[in-house]
Design goal:
Length: 122
């Protein structure tokens, strides 16, 4: 899961949503993940319960008041595997993490080419 945390009155958040965020949401990779958002009308209210769906509140304690937005968390098997914030964090950390996790396995296709029956379990 990719969790995005942002605010409507946050200029870097709006820039990400219109730029890199829009590109990612339109990409083939987007269909391979679960994407959730926490968007506050005001930056000052990002941590308020009203802005967090109940099922996502378990991730809120992993944030610090000093963390900025936009902020992303990559969650796999219930564990946060990457958490970064700021305008450059998307390209420098979060996107590479997602790419590495979404990279197709090379073992299965090679096994299927070498021994199709074994790869299919027949």
């Amino acid at each position: 899961m990719l969790l995005y945390v942002g605010a409507e009155d946050c200029a870097p958040c709006r820039a990400w949503q219109k730029g890199d965020g829009a590109s990612f949401l339109a990409s083939p990779a987007f269909s391979r993940i679960r994407y959730r958002e926490v968007k506050s009308p005001r930056l000052a209210d990002v941590m308020n319960d009203d802005n967090w769906p109940e099922d996502l509140r378990l991730y809120r304690p992993h944030l610090k008041r000093s963390d900025g937005v936009p902020l992303w968390m990559v969650v796999a098997d219930g564990e946060i595997v990457d958490r970064k914030y700021g305008a450059t964090a998307w390209r420098e950390s979060i996107l590479p993490t997602l790419r590495s996790m979404l990279r197709p396995s090379l073992i299965w296709p090679l096994a299927a080419l070498c021994a199709p029956e074994a790869a299919r379990g027949t």
